[in-house]
Amino acid sequence: MKRTEAEIQLISSYLLNQLTEEQKIAFEERIASDSILQDDVTKLKLLAQVTERQLLREKIQQIQIAKFAEWANEETEETTTEVKVIPLRNRWLFTRKLSAVTSVASIAFVISYLSFSDVTYEPMAFSERSNNHVMNDPVLEKLNKAVSLVQHGNSHEATLLFDQIERLPNIHPYYRDAAAWYEVVALQKTGKNQQAKDLLEQIESNPRFQFNIPTIDKWKVKWKLLF
Questions:
Q1: CA torsion sign, 16 to 17 to 20 to 21?
Q2: 21: burial class by Cβ within 10 Å (0-12, 13-18, 19+)?
Q3: DSSP-based three-state secondary structure for 71
Q4: Residue 148 Cα to chain centre, angstroms
Q5: Dihedral angle computed from the Cα positions of residues 47, 123, 194 and 207, in that order, rounded to the nearest 10 degrees
């Protein structure tokens, strides 16, 4: 069931405890009598929590890397022969304090982030798959063209191209898997949510899937497929 923007806002306000007591009671009565709504609320809450933790983890890692680089620079600037040691306990305390500060990210931010931010579109070279020269690879060129179409709002045309790529004989699995993921994105953008869900389920159940889908990108698409 596709929810309207007003319905999504109502669910968000409920999860953020922004409803009046009267509104909250009325909404909870709706939830109790509507199993689909109940399922949507549960999924939204869980997805927001999972994504918030992922965003927090990535932010902590970024700041840690910057901080450790700062410590390394300080060590190289020492003018004496004394070795400067940063106690592990201090680093652990730094991480704990950082986690406490960054954990203020709210469900509202996560909902906004998932709703309005797009997935990442990386130009694919796939040079890591072999030592062969791939710059003139026609399959690669077609794949990058299809990804560009999605990125610039031509998702319907892109889905047709992705489908053609996946059906090519003897195609390298990495190409096929990349096409499958971006086809999910394109299908969602054109409103073909069930097809996108089915293809995403195939991707997630395939233990040999080779394309590395960023976790956050996957959650962005899953979020949009909920409604």
A1: positive
A2: exposed
A3: helix
A4: 19
A5: -70
Helix (H, G, I), strand (E, B) or coil at 77: coil
Q: How far apart are CA 182 and CA 201, in angstroms?
A: 14
Nearest Cα neighbor of 185 from 225, 145, 141 is: 225
Sorted by where each begins, the domain ranges of the chain are 1-116, 118-225
Q: How far apart are the first and last CA of the chain?
A: 6
**What is the CATH code for 118-225?**
1.25.40
**Phi, psi torsion values for 119, nearest 5 degrees:** -75, 170
Largest CA distance in the chain: 73
Give CA separation, 179 vs 146, 154, 203, in Å. Answer: 8, 15, 11
Q: Has this prediction a pTM greater than 0.85? A: no
Sequence-ordered list of residues with C-beta below 8 angstroms from that of 156, at least 6 positions apart, any chain:
186, 190
Residue located via tokens 């077609």: 142
Two tokens at 159?
A: 């889905």
- Cβ atoms of residues 205 and 187 within 8 Å: no
Q: 142 near 165, Cβ under 8 Å?
A: yes
How does pLDDT run along the chain (227 residues), one tens digit per residue?
A: 556 667 777 887 787 778 899 999 999 999 899 888 888 788 777 766 666 566 555 555 555 556 555 555 654 554 444 544 445 444 444 454 444 434 334 555 666 666 777 888 876 665 444 444 445 688 888 999 999 999 999 999 999 999 999 999 888 899 999 999 999 999 999 999 999 999 999 999 999 999 988 888 888 898 888 76
